[in-house]
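Title: [Solved] DUF305 domain-containing protein 3D structure

Original question kept below for reference.
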Amino acid sequence: MYGSQFIRTLMQLNRLFRLPFLSLLVFSVLSTACKKHDMDDMKHDSPLMKIMMDMMTQMDAQAKTQDPDHDFAAQMVLHHDAAIKMSEEELRAGSNQEMKTIAQDVITKQRAEITQFNTFLGSHQPMQPLVPQFNQIQKTNMDRMMAASNGRAMTMRTDVDYAQMMVDHHQAAIDNSEALLQHGRNATMRQMAQAIITDQRQEIAALQSWLSRNR
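Solution (posted by the thread starter after getting help):
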């Protein structure tokens, strides 16, 4: 008897609370979906993300020679060009002076390095033996960069979004430079790769320090 009464009570409670509970569940699911949709829209609307995506499109279309030194230089031209465009966007739309100073420094350094890369490419012929795995390493590093940036919450505050994405962007440059040190054979490219690693590790530390103080 007591068991039957207990079951009837549970059924009554279920009828009493089922509709509000279901409404709350539906609202929660819809709210989560809307927030994700809004975040996706912000990513697509972000000029910084568009620069990154355009860079990836250009890199995917870029001819590969399978000579690590040649392909490293060619891809770093595109990579640096995107960093310059992102930094120009920070100068245009950002408001924090510390971040603007970092952006101007990136522009100055990476324009000079693009000139060095183009000078190398103008006089260098791809050499044997070919190293096709280097291109796959480059691709893996760039895909990892985009996954990291896509996983970030875009704030639409240019200073914050620039700092976040430049951390990812610089890390990819470091990863590709380390791969060049492993597979490259040209002394000039090896020197440039080491310089990029040293310089951009310092810049990542500065960006992360700024983010810790300004999120």
